[in-house]
Amino acid sequence: MSERQREAAFALFEAGYGEKAVSARLGVSATAVRRLRDRWRLRGAGALVMNPGKRSFTFEFKLEVVRRFVAGEASAIELAREHDLSSPKLVEGWVRAYRRDGEEALRSKRKGRPAKPADTSRLSELERLRQENLELSAKVAYLENCGP
Fold first, then answer.
1. I need a labelling partner for 60 at 20 to 30 A (CA). Which of 2, 108, 115, 133 fits?
2. Cβ proximity of 42 and 84 under 8 Å
3. How many other CB atoms are found less than 10 A from the CB of residue 5?
């Protein structure tokens, strides 16, 4: 959704239009409009400002937010507003992961390609050289004992 479309959507929300009407008027998907509306409800016109970076959250913080949501203490929108989160979808995603996989799902996981395994070729080369050294030492000792 372009910046101009977001601004127009906010103006329509403030004029009292619903998400379906805004979606039809702007020719944008209903899902995109729904997410934008949720952010607008949370932040008002401040939702137009894009955050420069991605925030990360501790396991303990996520767990506390999820427990409050599951206990019915607050809605996703209220929790997002209270903790200055970018969207209630963030809370909903944490809750979904928590319900599916338990607390461990809230722990940060390493992203990207897995680390390279230890260089086994180098270790095997070292072992080969040690074995060769041992054999040559045995030959030298044999030749010294058998010599004239």
1. 115
2. no
3. 16
List CB contacts of 35: < 8 A, sequence separation 6 or more.
87, 89
Under 8 Å between Cβ of 69 and 91 = yes
pLDDT of 93-112, one tens digit each?
A: 999 999 999 999 998 887 78
Q: Which of 17, 22, 20, 24 is nearest to 6 (CA)?
A: 22
User: What does DSSP assign to residue 114?
Assistant: P
- Sign of the torsion formed by the C-alpha atoms of 28, 7, 4 and 92: negative
Cα separation, 97 vs 94, in Å, equals 5
> Measured between alpha carbons, how far is 80 from 61 in angstroms, rounded to an integer?
12
pLDDT tens column, 5-32: 888 888 888 888 888 888 888 888 888 8
Would you kindly state where each structural domain of the chain is located, as residue ranges? Answer: 1-50, 54-110, 118-148
* DSSP 3-state percent helix, strand, coil across the chain (nearest 5): 70, 0, 30
Answer yes or no: are the C-beta atoms of 139 and 95 closer than 8 Å: no
